[in-house]
């Protein structure tokens, strides 16, 4: 049997469920509550739907997940500030928690008196507290204020005292909620170092944090909670990466929805403006440098730059997914279609054009560029109004990118050239790094390694 499996469990959480009653229209005043006592509506919010995990003695485990997913609730259940609706929690040994720090402090009592009452809540006898009193005071750096009532303390001083007590009670299990927000930067660094010492001494630790760096430095294992269930569990570096990538995906999807709304509104405004004032005839005619002075149309990013003679003008540009939907976020490996529409002012004078596109990463790295002539050794016969599409497999790695499009004459004169016409983002489930994905096949002693499923 592996040594690890022999190690004793310090915490066993077994099929725990927890809901809260959330009142929707609770009266504010006593009168309102009395008058509308029959109207008090509430909803049952199921916060933990079925959580099971174990923590071995001496192990440090991090709980991560987005706001409101139930991390603090899990910790409060472990501390017994709350009780589960069903399921069981078993903890072996003395528990100390850094949750709701200083909740047990009495404001009129001095710092010293509060150390005694607070440490006794953690189960220490008077003799035990006497022997570690100076260590607690020294760690808090509050020596000169220790006999003042804690109501005269700043919130940072208050937290420092509470933290010093909680970490000096020789707990077997330490539960921590976003602890490293305590005090100033120096004190935070000191707390962090102390935690590492406590861990090295073999204390079991469960920590809730939004700081992946802290989780990776302290924890042996990480548990990602989502929708009241455990979504993933394992080595912090990998779980954190998956979590951060999902958070980025959610953020980008929101951004995409906002952008769609913005574009729709801009198009609407453009149509309204077109309807009320017809563009004067002379503005529609070709004129070198004219495009740079015109207002950018709605399909362009606000930061776009437009150059060219205006003899051919793009009237629409869209990046489409495989279903033909206009998108802002793509994944590495997706097929993307760039659809361009154009208007040619006088096709008889400018019968041929070459269309091209370029992609730049947001830090201006030129990732790619090509045109019709490079790919097909031919030129496009220009119509008064035409459409052109280019389809490509997206091998770009995660990041933000900008698209440039241009159409030029056989002599190289740019008819229309729009830089940063559109922004887009790329996400990926792969973990390779760099600018683009070079799908790699590994061989060991001539034998091809099996590729991960889904790649
Ligand atoms: N006492 C309570 N009464 C009603 N709802 C509660 C109570 N405590 C927590 N909740 C709700 O339970 C959900 C989970 O809260 P919890 O504090 O566990 O989340 P969290 O993952 O720690 O979030 P955060 O990262 O924001 O700290 C939230 O929707 C919260 O509003």
Automatic annotation (TrEMBL):
Could you name the Gene Ontology cellular component terms for this entry?
membrane
| Listed GO MF terms | ABC-type transporter activity; ATP binding; ATP hydrolysis activity
Q: Where is the composition biased (Basic and acidic residues)?
A: 255-273, 281-290
What InterPro entries does its record include? AAA+_ATPase, ABC_transporter-like_ATP-bd, ABC_transpr_TagH-like, Bact_Polysacc_Export_ATP-bd, P-loop_NTPase, Wzt_C
Q: Which keywords does UniProt give here?
A: ATP-binding, Nucleotide-binding, Transport
Q: Which residues form the ABC transporter domain?
A: 30-252
Region named Disordered:
255-290
Q: Does the keyword Zinc apply?
A: no
Q: Which family does it belong to?
A: Belongs to the ABC transporter superfamily.
Tell me what this protein is called.
ABC transporter, ATP-binding protein
Species in which this protein is naturally found: Ruminococcus callidus ATCC 27760
